[in-house]
Amino acid sequence: MTLVFDKSLATPHYRHLLGKKHLNAINGLPVIFKDGDNEGTIEKYFVDGQEYHLYPVHRESCREVELLL
What we know:
38% strand, two-stranded antiparallel ribbon, globular
């Protein structure tokens, strides 16, 4: 299973900080967590042609998905 960001699980405060464009860009992207950490990272995403990375991403803002190969 893989954890991906789910904008519907983000807190109102987090939504306000990121803004709609960033939330839409990261929705469904994999979040990388180190062993046992509650905060992860989205390593690369793009908004308006600029590259960003996001830390911290709280585990509560993620959902589990099964990746199909």
